[in-house]
TrEMBL record:
The keyword Aminoacyl-tRNA synthetase does not apply. It comes from Bdellovibrio svalbardensis. The keyword Transmembrane applies. Keywords: Membrane, Transmembrane, Transmembrane helix. This is ABC transporter permease. The chain crosses the membrane at residues 26-49, 69-88, 178-200, 212-235. InterPro entries: Permease_MalE. It comes from the Bacteria.
C-alpha cells in the first residue's frame, strides 16, 4: 500500500493528466455523496447538541455554554469524521468493487499491454477527486451541522440565532475551519489508496470482490480514525 501511495504521488506530476476522468470522479465523489452526507451529519449535530445540553444541565445545572461547545465539537471533530466515514462506505466500496472487477476480468492487464499505467489511469484521478471532494464536503458538512444545531438551539433550547452565533464566536477560531479542511483532505486521500490497493489485489470471483469491498471499508475507517487522532494531537499544539 505504501508503494501504491508513492506511485500515486509520483503520478500526480507525470503526464498524461487525465482531466476528464478527474472531473467525472469529482462529480461522483462530491455531488453524488452530498445529500446523504448533509442528511447524516445534520442529525449527528442535532444529537450532539441535545446530549450536550442534557449533560450540562445534569452536571452544572446550566447549559449556556452548549452552543459554543457544540460548535467547537462540530468543527474540530464531528463533521469531518462522520463525512469521511460515510465517504469510505460509499465511495471506497464503489472504487474497490470497480477496480476489483477490472482486475478479475483482466482489464487491468489489458491496460498494461496497451502501455497505459493503471496507477496513472485509475488511482491518480480518483485520489485527486477524493482529496478535493472531501475538502469541499467537509466545508458543506460543517455548515450543515452548525445550521442544524442553530435550529435545534432555537426551537428546543431557547437560544436565538444571535445568541448561538455570539456563543460560537467565543469558542471557535478561523483556524478551526482550516484544520477541518486539512483533515477532510487527508481523509479523502486515504480512501482511494485503500480501495485501489484491495481492488488491485482482488481474488477471482464474486467472493473476492466482496472481500475487497469489505476490507476497504474496514481498513479505510480504521485509517480515518487513526489519522484523526494524529492530526487532532498535532493541531492541539498549534492553538
Amino acid at each position: 500500500m505504501i508503494s501504491l501511495l508513492a506511485d500515486t504521488f509520483f503520478g500526480l506530476f507525470a503526464p498524461p493528466f487525465r482531466r476528464r476522468e478527474f472531473l467525472q470522479q469529482l462529480y461522483f465523489v462530491a455531488n453524488r455523496s452530498l445529500i446523504i452526507i448533509v442528511f447524516c451529519v445534520s442529525f449527528a449535530a442535532i444529537v450532539t447538541i441535545l446530549e450536550s445540553s442534557f449533560h450540562m444541565k445534569m452536571v452544572i445545572q446550566n447549559d449556556s455554554m452548549v452552543p459554543g461547545f457544540a460548535a467547537v465539537l462540530i468543527l474540530r471533530e464531528l463533521a469531518a469524521v462522520v463525512m469521511a466515514l460515510l465517504l469510505a462506505s460509499r465511495v471506497g466500496a464503489g472504487y474497490a468493487s470497480e477496480v476489483g472487477s477490472m482486475q478479475i476480468t483482466e482489464q487491468i492487464d489489458a491496460l498494461k499491454m496497451l502501455g497505459i499505467d493503471p496507477v496513472n489511469y485509475l488511482v491518480v484521478p480518483r485520489f485527486l477527486a477524493c482529496v478535493l471532494g472531501a475538502t469541499i464536503l467537509t466545508v458543506v458538512a460543517n455548515m450543515s451541522c452548525l445550521f442544524s444545531a442553530m435550529l435545534v438551539s432555537q426551537s428546543l433550547l431557547g437560544y436565538t440565532p444571535g445568541m448561538f452565533i455570539a456563543s460560537m464566536h467565543r469558542f471557535i477560531q478561523f483556524r478551526d475551519i482550516i484544520f477541518a479542511m486539512i483533515k477532510g483532505a487527508c481523509f479523502g486521500g486515504v480512501i482511494p489508496i485503500v480501495a485501489c490497493y484491495f481492488g488491485f489485489n482482488c481474488q477471482q470471483g464474486a467472493e473476492g470482490v466482496g472481500r475487497a469491498t469489505t476490507n476497504t471499508v474496514v481498513v479505510a475507517s480504521i485509517a480515518i480514525i487513526v489519522i484523526d487522532f494524529i492530526l487532532s494531537y498535532t493541531f492541539s499544539h498549534l492553538y
